[in-house]
Structures are given as structure tokens and as C-alpha cells.
Write a structure and sequence with these properties.
There is one protein chain. This protein has 14 helices and eleven strands. It folds into two domains: 37-112 and 212-324, Periplasmic binding protein-like II (D-Maltodextrin-Binding Protein, domain 2, 3-Layer(aba) Sandwich), CATH 3.40.190.10; 117-204, Periplasmic binding protein-like II (D-Maltodextrin-Binding Protein, domain 2), CATH 3.40.190.10. By secondary structure, the chain is an alpha/beta fold. It starts with 8 loop residues before the first helix and ends with a helix. It has helices at 9-26, 48-55, 72-80, 91-99, 143-154, 172-175, 220-225, 227-246, 252-258, 262-269, 277-284, 290-298, 314-317, 321-324, and strands spanning 37-41, 64-68, 86-90, 105-113, 117-121, 135-138, 163-166, 183-187, 200-204, 212-218, 272-274.
């Protein structure tokens, strides 16, 4: 009896077809992202360079979606729940998020507040010490709560020495009197929009050791998925900061968003320290120890004392790799 071949002609054809299809697949272009990078930007002057870049058509809406949010806690929830991929947050807010189980990386510093975050008091109260026993409004678990703790500590007071009242900063002007508040922690532009209340500035981030550093915090997966887009976003920030500071561009979109005048906005940005590319590289690349030391000290006493688990090291959170790729 004649022996049958081990491999039939049909099998050879199938294998050849598979090889052809596999080779063709390798030659196909890599699929482009299907969804834009989502970035939460709060009502904060340090985020406005991106608003200007968007209005100028330099941020492709198909690739970058700036999600505007009025208050910080909303941005924190959004990035924590991965509703957005990145957010402008303060250094202490990033620490809180990570300790709550939401992994984040800091890829750049946007600005440092040198007086644009404040503890304000009603007329007749002129110092933090006079707020003992008083009702103080603040946004819990945000930079506002850290600033409150700093102000109290510097005046030999504890959180238990006052009556903290959780609130949304966007509502302060309407509810300050209703809640019988004696003081409130706010950031710009809310302070400027509350002028009718005639509040006194009793403490702000211009005090030594009280600066608030705001950063672009990104989910680790997004750094991989949206690397080129993030580089474009960061490039736009550094391009538009000088335009914003020097007043060389039309800022009406920013003024409408913040609800203030050009003169008031100029005063606000004068109380911010803008961190350029080279300084960013030094601070996030551990070539300058200041930011790392500040990051470690922040973990020692946030206002609710809710931090748990081991200490975060700057090297676990800082990522300067995108900065190194900027043009």
C-alpha cells in the first residue's frame, strides 16, 4: 500500500496564507489613540497658559481635552477614579491621593503660590490667634486644609481650637454669612471675587515655609499611552507662561473664565512663582534637593492626620523623563 504524505497540499496552502496575513499585519501602521488625553484644570491662574493655548488652536481637541472644574476636590475625585488621566494638583493633594490608593506621577511643576492662597477673617479679626473658637470654612483634604493647619500651628493653635466647617470655595461669597463663619481658606480667584465681604488677610502662602507647589499629576498608564501628547501639553505650558506674565496676548478667555478684571488678574499672577523647564528638570530630577525635602516634610502633618502607610519617597513619585524630552 502506498504511504500518504504527512502534510497535505491543503495544509501547506493554509500555513502559507497565515504567514502572508501575519506579515501584512506587521506592516500596518500603529493605531492612533481613540480617546483624547483628559486633563482636569481647576480655577487657578497656573492652569491658564493651557486655556490660552487651547483658544489659540495649539492644543488639538482630538488629542487633549481640558476638563474645567471649579473646585479642587472634584479634580481629585476625577483623577482618582480615572475619569480624567491627569490633573493640576498641589503637592500635598498628590500625597493624599497616593496614600488613598490612587497611583500618580508628578511630571512637571506648574507654579508655586507665594501669596495666592489665603486664610481670610471677617472684619474685626486681624490675626490667626483671634480665630480661636471661631468657625473656619475650608475645603477638606486639599491644599486649603494644609494651609489651615500651617496657619494654626504657626500661631500655637490646633485644629481642635477652632470649629472647622467643610465647604466648596466657589460658594463662599453666597454662604459666608449664612454659615456664620469667622474665617475661610480660599485661593485666587475666589478671594478677589469675595471683595464685597471685606475680609482681612490673616495668613497666606507668602509666609516662610508656607508655599504651595502645584504640579501636573498623571496616572502612570497615561504616561505610556499618551507620552507624545503629554509632551505637547507641557510644551504649550512653557510657551504660554511668558505671554501670560508679560501681557503680550489677549487674555479675555481667561478673564471670562475667572470672572475678574485684567488688573486683578495681573495682581494674582504676580503672587505666583513660575517654574521654567530647566528648574523643573533640576527639581524633579533630584539635582536640587529643595522639592524632595519639601515633599518629605509635607507628609509629617496634614490637617486631618489621615495619612497612613509607609513614607513616600520622592523618587517613587517624581518623573522627569518627559521634561528631558521637551524641545
Amino acid at each position: 500500500m502506498k504511504q500518504r504524505p504527512l502534510i497535505s497540499l491543503g495544509s501547506i496552502v493554509v500555513v502559507a496564507l497565515v504567514l502572508v496575513l501575519w506579515t501584512a499585519a506587521l506592516q500596518l501602521p500603529t493605531p492612533t489613540q481613540s480617546e483624547p488625553l483628559r486633563v482636569a484644570v481647576g480655577m487657578w491662574a497656573g492652569a491658564e497658559p493651557w486655556i490660552l493655548a487651547r483658544e489659540a488652536g495649539e492644543l488639538d481637541a482630538r488629542k487633549i481635552n481640558l476638563v474645567e472644574m471649579n473646585w479642587t476636590s472634584a479634580a481629585m475625585r476625577a483623577v482618582g477614579n480615572r475619569v480624567v488621566d491627569a490633573a493640576v494638583l498641589s503637592l500635598d493633594e498628590v500625597i493624599r491621593q497616593i496614600h488613598q490608593g490612587y497611583p500618580l506621577k508628578i511630571v512637571m511643576i506648574t507654579d508655586i503660590s507665594r501669596g495666592a492662597d489665603l486664610l481670610m477673617a471677617r472684619p474685626g479679626i486681624n490675626s490667626v490667634e483671634e480665630l480661636r473658637g471661631g468657625r473656619i470654612g475650608y475645603e477638606p483634604r486639599t491644599s486649603g486644609s494644609w494651609l489651615l493647619s500651617k496657619a494654626l500651628k504657626n500661631s500655637n493653635l490646633k485644629l481642635s481650637d477652632v470649629q472647622p466647617v467643610p465647604l466648596n470655595p466657589a460658594e463662599v461669597e453666597e454662604i459666608f454669612g449664612q454659615l456664620s463663619l469667622d474665617g475661610v481658606v480660599v485661593a485666587e480667584p475666589w478671594k478677589e471675587r469675595m471683595r464685597s465681604l471685606n475680609l482681612n488677610n490673616v495668613y497666606d502662602t507668602s509666609r516662610p515655609g508656607s508655599s504651595i507647589v502645584r504640579v501636573l499629576a498623571v496616572h502612570p498608564d497615561a504616561i505610556i499611552e499618551y507620552r507624545e501628547v503629554l509632551i505637547a501639553l507641557m510644551t504649550a505650558h512653557f510657551k504660554w507662561v511668558p505671554e501670560l506674565v508679560e501681557g503680550g496676548v489677549e487674555v479675555d478667555p481667561v478673564l471670562r473664565r475667572e470672572g475678574i478684571s485684567a488688573e486683578v488678574f495681573a495682581n494674582i499672577i504676580s503672587r505666583l512663582e513660575w517654574v521654567d523647564v530647566e528648574e523643573n528638570r533640576k527639581l524633579l530630577g533630584h539635582k536640587d534637593a529643595w522639592l524632595g525635602d519639601f515633599f518629605l516634610n509635607l507628609q509629617k502633618g496634614l490637617v486631618e492626620d489621615a495619612i497612613s502607610g509607609g513614607r513616600l519617597e520622592p523618587s517613587e513619585v517624581f518623573d522627569s523623563s518627559l521634561l528631558e524630552e521637551l524641545p
